[in-house]
Amino acid sequence: MANITKKVSWSSRGDESGGGERTPLLNGSEEVRYTRQVGLLSGEGGMFHIGRLSTVDLEEDMTSDESSQGHHVSMSSIDGVKVCVCVFQSLDYDNSENQLFLEEERRMSFLGFKCLEISRWVICGLIGFLTGLIACCIDIAVENLAGVKYYVVKQNIEKFTEVGGLSISLILWAVLNSAFVMVGAVIVAFFEPGAAGSGIPQIKCYLNGVKIPRVVRLKTLVVKVCGVICSVAGGLAVGKEGPMIHSGAVVAAGVSQGRSTSLKKDFKIFEYFRRDTEKRDFVSAGAAAGVSAAFGAPVGGVLFSLEEGASFWNQMLTWRIFFASMISTFTLNFFLSIYNNKPGDLSSPGLINFGRFESDSVAYNLYEIPLFIVMGAAGGLLGALFNILNYWLTIFRIRYVHRPCLQVMEAMLVAAVTATVSFAMIYFSNDCQPLGPDQSEDYPLQLFCADGEYNSMATAFFNTPERSVRSLFHNPPGSYNPLTLSLFTLTYFFLACWTYGLTVSAGVFIPSLLIGAAWGRLFGILLAAITPNGSVWAVPGKYALMGAAAQLGGIVRMTLSLTVIMVEATGNVTYGLPIMLVLLTAKIVGDYFVEGLYDIHIKLQSVPFLHLEAPATSHWLTAREVMGAPVTCFNRIEKVGTIVDVLSNTSTNHNGFPVIVPVLGKICGLILRSQLIVLLKHKVFVELARSRLTQRKLQLKDFRDAYPRFPPIQSIHVSQDERECMMDLTEFMNPTPYTVPQETSLPRVFKLFRALGLRHLVVVDSENRVVGLVTRKDLARYHLGKHGLEEMQLAQT
């Protein structure tokens, strides 16, 4: 493999032998190993590539208490840059078809299967209902808190405009912002770092088959909801829509299990679904319900789950996800109508309502399509710039802002700076517009404008981002002058870039739309000014919509789902084609420079994420070259002491073990660490079974009760006498694991691994003897870079 560029990336304890993935600890958190290292691309300028990176939600202060909670910590430093690393493990999407599983399936009647199917629909309905309810609570809380804040500041500004001393108003605004954000940042930084950001990268990884620590916990949901309310009310350049996707996923993970491990409460329902296969399907429904509640876009939610999330899909799952999305939108609609004293008026389908674009104002001509494509290219360029700046900013945060107290201080600083910049922009703006009867300004600021006029800059800054987007889409031509829009775009672009990645719960959807709507409207105004009859066809609101789509597409690089979300949110299908062209152009242009924001942050967490296909030039690589070897195997009837020693060995902390026929060495099955731990816990030994005829036979329920927080091997006591006993693995192992010959090409291995959602793929020789094991990290370390196929070396820690 001499012609593969090598660079440091995945960090893993032990060598490449046999699928080493971490095991959960007793308290349910993943065993986290922190390594601090950076892999740089050598020479030739180019963009800085970091091998092992982490977003802020994984950065924690390395204190002795963390180690006492079970976090195994190790650190290293290269070039003075410190990076935190978490070693992830995969989900078991493929069912272990052992004898217990087959016996249970045989015992189940036709009626039993029908009841299970009905249960799936009931769970999806519950997911949609609860997600809609959470969205409703977030919306009402944000509107009330922001309303109080803007009312107090507005009264103060009006008071001091007349008598002088507006600096007091600035201090008040900055203090209120900082106070809200401080609460939001403290609960995230100190109580649940996993709730930071939008949560979309983590959910994408979970649906790709990677178990992200603490991502679908109840505590994460509570902190997420409270945090997003505080950050939006605190005036940060963030939106509340992104976190809804994470919230929906957490709701789905909790409801589908029929219990809460955090509250130690088991409702004894939905026990059949306590396994990764079912749970991940429900999480994809929760993510879709979150999109649906955020944008009022049920079809967009299903497509988001398909495009961005679930790696594995079937038609019945599509129906159930669509059902959950519809219930979510309806629930939000229904409760908001009651809150607005219009019960039954279902007119606010999502948290963000773009307002309806009337048919006469949305007409576009054939000659405008090239203009839309140019806007898409501009969105791609600006999106790439946004992503690169945010990337470097994250590197800076990893170096210097890794203590929780520093993270809270940074969030408060950003809140105060946002308020100061907003105030300065409003103060120095002389863009005064008449306050007509049709104006929909919620908090019009007069400031130094004449009576009957309001400050146009205040409409953009002195408002929640959602309302600002709506005003840019629908305010009549002449509501903003070009200088106002130029300054707003410039300042908000950098504020949003600085804000994304703070230790607060916040999304990037709305800031992106707002930046794009501002420069899109500016584009429309300039077109109207420089073309004959431009004022007739160059409607600013139309170009604001295209700019918003271009900017959001340039940052997050979604195409299919985002097109449908934008069409559903605007309530008009006329713009389907232009929006699609704009998003496609933005993605193509942006991808030329750098990846999408979510993909960057997935790499920043060093998650072994498997894309749709293997790298294009990897056909000459075979399973022999990518597999881990030698492999730790067990005999069909194995000595208990041997099993305990292998599971206790921290240098090769594997999760899957091929079971072989003694002497011949041929594979006859595969058993997981979690299964072995349950067997040891219940003392399922051959000698005990003979001596105690009345011993209860182990059932699948015992494995489901231990899921998902299997105890560590250290917590299981095995006496010296018991170590001499034997354990028969025949009944519990998967007797039909997937295997491939060692000559199989990498793309073929990749396709099999990803399409079936495997965790372990056994490599065998012509005699069916085990020669290696392929796991997710073995495949994820190959990718196509600017220098051809690149292999990221497994760093020894």
From TrEMBL:
Domain of life the protein comes from: Eukaryota
Membrane-topology descriptor: Multi-pass membrane protein
GO molecular function: chloride channel activity; chloride:proton antiporter activity
Residue intervals passing through the bilayer: 121-142, 170-191, 221-239, 282-305, 317-339, 369-393, 405-428, 483-502, 508-531, 543-567, 573-594
Keyword Magnesium: no
Keyword Iron-sulfur applies: no
Chain spans, region Disordered: 1-28
InterPro entries linked: CBS_dom, CBS_dom_sf, CIC-7, Cl-channel/antiporter, Cl-channel_core, ClC
Family matches, as PROSITE patterns: CBS
Subcellular location: Membrane
Protein name in the entry: Chloride channel protein
